[in-house]
Amino acid sequence: MPTKVIAVANQKGGVGKTTTAVNLAACLAVLGERVLLLDLDPQANATSGLGLEKAEGGSAYRALLGEEPLASRIQPTAWENLSIIPSELDMCGADVELARLPDHLERLSRALGPLRESAHFDLLLVDCPPSLGILTLNAFTATDYVLVPLQCEYYALEGISMITRLLKQLHDAGTNPRLQLLGVVMTMFDGRTRLSPQVVSEVREHFGDQVFETVIPRTTRLAEAPSFGQPIIQYDKYSAGASAYEVLAQEVLKRLEKTNPAG
After folding, report:
1. May I ask the CATH architecture of the domain 4-258?
2. Domain extents for the chain?
3. pTM greater than 0.90
4. CB 115 within 8 A of CB 71
5. Residues near 66 by Cβ (< 8 Å), separated by ≥ 6?
6. Could you give the CA distance from residue 67 to residue 75 in angstroms, rounded to a whole number?
């Protein structure tokens, strides 16, 4: 079967997007899935979060320009079943460069084609930039599913509404007829406050079973792990954050079994 592709996206920064991309990828790998994490964010936090250096020329940039195969940028990580295509600062120029090219929203889709068909990986997760710019739109055009991490805060619903509208437009316009919302995962949950449970309740009311049952807690250990270049299941495998991402990985696999990208 071709590789299933999941974009992890939210146009807002600081919502646990990269934390979710890195830790979900690591937990899926532990469950035996062959996982490739594509760091499409010029900040390259997913790259450093898995202990890799931000090396010049190591990103997907040239593959997006059609100058080399995307597979040439795959690197192993320290963890079995988990590989990465790193990011680096040159990705900052991609928005400008891609805008000048024909079919500028389909560059990633084209670059991913051979990787998908090779089926060398079961799942490919894309950590998108915290914006709805050309790189994120490329990810939405190339992927089967979008997973949206949503912080337990007051403006959460505004952000998710914008993304769901955009996904519907790309799907309905035929830009990517496979595109589906895999789900919304609530992050940075703090049970000691009134706000977190209120926001979760409100988001569930609006989006029903599209919201994952698993809620990711706000914890010091989760915040510390990236500075050690480790996913939380390596840094502190008995922590609440590790448990939450392990359960989320199982929930993601169940959803993937139930859904098939159309087209």
Report:
1. 3-Layer(aba) Sandwich (3.40)
2. 4-258
3. yes
4. yes
5. 107, 110, 111
6. 18
Phi, psi (degrees; rounded to nearest 5) at 233: -70, -15
CA–CA gap between residue 194 and residue 175 (Å, rounded): 41
Instruction: Return all residues near 211 (Cβ < 8 A) that are at least 6 apart.
Output: 183, 184, 185, 186, 200, 203, 204
6 token code pair:
């999941």
Query: What would the mean pLDDT of 227-244 be, rounded to a whole number?
Result: 96
Please provide the DSSP assignment of the chain as one string: -PPEEEEE--SSSSSSHHHHHHHHHHHHHHTT--EEEEE--TT-HHHHHTT----TT-SSHHHHTTSS-GGGG-EE-SSTTEEEE---GGGGGHHHHHHTSTTTTSHHHHHHHHHHHHT--SEEEEE--SSSSHHHHHHHHH-SEEEEEEESSTTHHHHHHHHHHHHHHHHHTTS-TT-EEEEEEEEEE-TTSSHHHHHHHHHHHHHGGGEEEEEEE--HHHHHGGGGT--HHHH-TTSHHHHHHHHHHHHHHHHHHH-----
pLDDT one-digit tens code per residue, 66-112: 999 999 999 999 999 999 999 988 888 887 889 898 889 999 999 99
Helices 195-207, 156-172: crossing angle, 10 deg rounding:
20
Taking only the tens place, the pLDDT of each residue in 242-261 is: 999 999 999 999 999 987 65
